[in-house]
Amino acid sequence: MKPLVVLPGDPRHLRQKFGEFCFSPIVKGHGGFILRAMTKSSSAWGPGQSAQLYGVTGWGAGYFSVNARGHVSVRPVGENGPELDLWEVVEASLHRGLELPILLRFQDLLRHRVQELHRVFEEAAQEAGYQGGYQAVFPIKVNQLREVVEEILDAGAPYHHGLEVGSKPELFAALAMHRDPESLIVCNGYKDRAFIEAALLGRKLGKRIFLVVEKLEELPTILSASQSLGVQPLLGIRLKLSTKGQGRWARSGGEEAKFGLSTAELLQALRWIEECGMIHGVELLHFHIGSQIPDILAIKRAVREAARYYARLRQQGVKLRYLDVGGGLGVDYDGSSSSRESSINYTLAEYARDIVYNVLEICQQEGVPHPTLVTETGRALVAHHSVLVVNVLGVIRKTPVLVPCPNGNPHKLVRDLLELKATVNQGNLLEHYHDALQIKEDAQAMFDLGLLDLSTKAQIEALYWELLERILALYGARRSIPEELRTVKDHLADRYLCNFSVFQSLIDYWGLKQVFPVMPIHRLLERPTRQGRLVDITCDSDGQIADFVGPHGEVAPTLPLHPVDKEPYYLGIFLVGAYQDIMGDLHNLFGRVNEAHVFLDPDEPGGFYIEETIPSLKIREALSLVQYEAPTILRAMKTQVDQAIRSDVLKPTEGMLLLEAYERGLEGSAYLALGQNEKEPPLSKRP
Ligand SMILES: *Cc1c(COP(=O)(O)O)cnc(C)c1O
């Protein structure tokens, strides 16, 4: 590689200006930085290769791709809309004083999802001649953040997009946020008297708020509360369909489901309601067979079954107006468009058409009017809009960078390994692996018996991993690797230590092994040469990611990554807008991450502005959630410092500085500030 040009300036700015495609790597030279031309092999790598490697064309859904600078680009309003550079958005957020990890919310993307949902249903209805219309409600549990709910209600206002709640706190939030008298509030979940009364209060305000009967036992309370408050309730009934969903949430449907009325219970409920003179309030029929339904066939079956119930009840004189098909519309997390759990084998438009056509057909057969279709789509509305960006704090490699060099007369086992290393070739890969394994086991046995010293053991381990790396490299990509070596390969993968907590930010990966797309948000003009797994900063061995989306949507145990140098290395974890942040917990007291809310704006230099930032949970706040109040722990620290001063362990000035540092530290974030804040003075010197 020959130096190409010498440029003055900071390499980071140069990279930002010219991109990484012309010059790499950057080394310090005289009076500036020498930018060296890339080698032939890496120049064959471009945005297209990266996009394919990380499968972004599949899961990106037109919102995410790779731009010519080798950064991830975001098109919040779809393929034909304006394009943002994710790296620039992160830099702007850092500029605003946020630290990594950062959760970015693309509010325009959220609006676009809402509009798309209504567009596909409108088109399907028009095409089919469906007369009942369509309304949606957003299930708040999928993402309760006020800004998210507000954005959905705002974007959905022309379509009377309403809300779905499953608990009292959600209902209290919904009552306040909901303004449009034509949009619905649907109350699901088990309800007590207070829940029911709060909903009836909403009725008094003129809201179209439905109490959905989930089990027979709650009906008497609903009826008596309505009578004593003098309110005509709007009632819905949840069906227990025989159709099951599929995938991870299959048990939400089917005959053993936790919620819903069987046919006999349904008839019983209607009799009770009739006796109380409230039968004209029964307007909605509801089902929900689970979330992330991968196969469209399950949806069709459930819709047909429910439509049949609707038709029969209409024929019996129950004036149902709404058929609510619940949630379940999935997200293609792995981009494979298949019926695998982390994918879906249908599009948004197909989903809408299948619901509309199947209900239409059954209504025609049965001679009943078309109901207004309601969906409780959550996941598919909000998953795409947020991206978690984490920085890599360090890389843990299995093979030590520096192998201790055996000098003098090396141990016999070391000599054997050196011999294997020298003679390994395409013809003896597996045999050499077995021999090396034997040597490693012998060494362990000798060590256990006290016959091996530490430095010899270190040499053997280092040589063993080196040899294995060499063997795997010789297998290369040409041949399929034998089963027994495949686990070794995963073992050899680097551990990229990332500034986040799986328990806070990716709870469905931890709990359900739900895969989420992960990729670097920059350096995408550079061929990634390492294979890695991500480990988080919790002290839990479960705090890692070892399932990734491969080029064709297959799940892979490692992720291709770049070697980390002194420059910051940022990874994006995508499609995390549904269920993740809101269900995250306080494991290790990490808590909420920093958030930036990004809006498109053609007048701004990068095409966007950051309207709002939400700081991460402070250490003081996290502690207070588990009953350590700041004054109490400060007092406890002061007592200890005073004691140390009295017994001459500390000088009084030292003691005061220590206390001040502790107090200031409480106001900081729980996440690690390694790398990003190296310019800052140490804790005790900050103002
Ligand atoms: C969770 C839930 C939803 C949301 O489902 P998604 O698959 O996220 O769209 C809708 N309705 C009910 C009753 C739910 O419990």
Summarize this entry quickly.
This protein is α/β, with parallel strands linked by helices. Helix content is 39%, strand content 17%. The two termini are 47 Å apart.
The helix-and-strand class reads alpha/beta
Largest sheet: 10 strands, mixed
Give the terminus-to-terminus CA distance: 47 Å
Question: What do the pLDDT scores average to?
Answer: 89
Low-confidence stretches: 1-6, 16-42, 676-687
Roughly how many Å is the radius of gyration? 30 Å
Structure description:
The protein has 687 residues and is of the alpha/beta class. α12 (296-315) packs parallel to α13 (348-366), α15 (412-423) runs antiparallel to α16 (429-448) and α15 (412-423) runs parallel beside α17 (454-475). Strands 7, 16, 17, 18, 19, 20, 23, 24, 25 and 26 form a ten-stranded mixed β-sheet that branches. The protein is built from 24 helices and 26 strands. It binds pyridoxal-5'-phosphate. Pyridoxal-5'-phosphate binds at residues 139, 141-142, 164, 166, 188, 288, 291-292, 326-329, 376-379. Keywords: Decarboxylase, Lyase, Magnesium, Metal-binding, Polyamine biosynthesis, Pyridoxal phosphate, Spermidine biosynthesis.
